[in-house]
Amino acid sequence: MISDQKLIEGCIEGKRKSFNLLYKKYAAVMLGVCMRYCRDSQEAEDILQEGFIKVFSRIDQFRMEGSFEGWIKRVMINTAVNHYHNNLKHSNHSDINKIEDYYVVNDQMNENVSSTQPGLSKDKLLELIRNLPKGYQMVFNLYAIEGYSHQEIAGILNVSVNTSKSQLFKARRYLKNLISTLMHNHQTKQSDEK
Length: 194
Hints:
Structural class: mainly alpha
Oligomer: single chain
Shape: globular
Number of helices: 10
């Protein structure tokens, strides 16, 4: 297996084989990153392609310090955030605050969402996250999955720190309600089958 350093050097030299090998090595993992910020696989694939174009055009800026995979991941996240901002400008989106009116408010908001229902699979939880309203989804992913602080998220999304905190709070509440509804429906279905 060719090292990242050799692949990077090959890409800087414009070697097509290095571009292909680098893409094959990281595409699947980075598609998973992109999927967390998208509603469907087509959107994630578009972001992945755009992200790799940025990676290849800026690969000479990687200073061989830290993880190359981490650097690519950051490019993908930034590409997803840019995609989000561009879509905000071009879409007529619904008011997030109105959406939450459809769900029952739960008092225990600070619990870890994934620990509320131990029977929920990782794939199902990721699907639920992908179905969050876009603002909630972005903040939840950046905070809970990527580990950014509210200050960093505020800078990335060009919002206030309080907006970031509020969006995370609402995302957790929204997820808990989706999970509760899902589990209730599952239990009802099981009861009906008996």
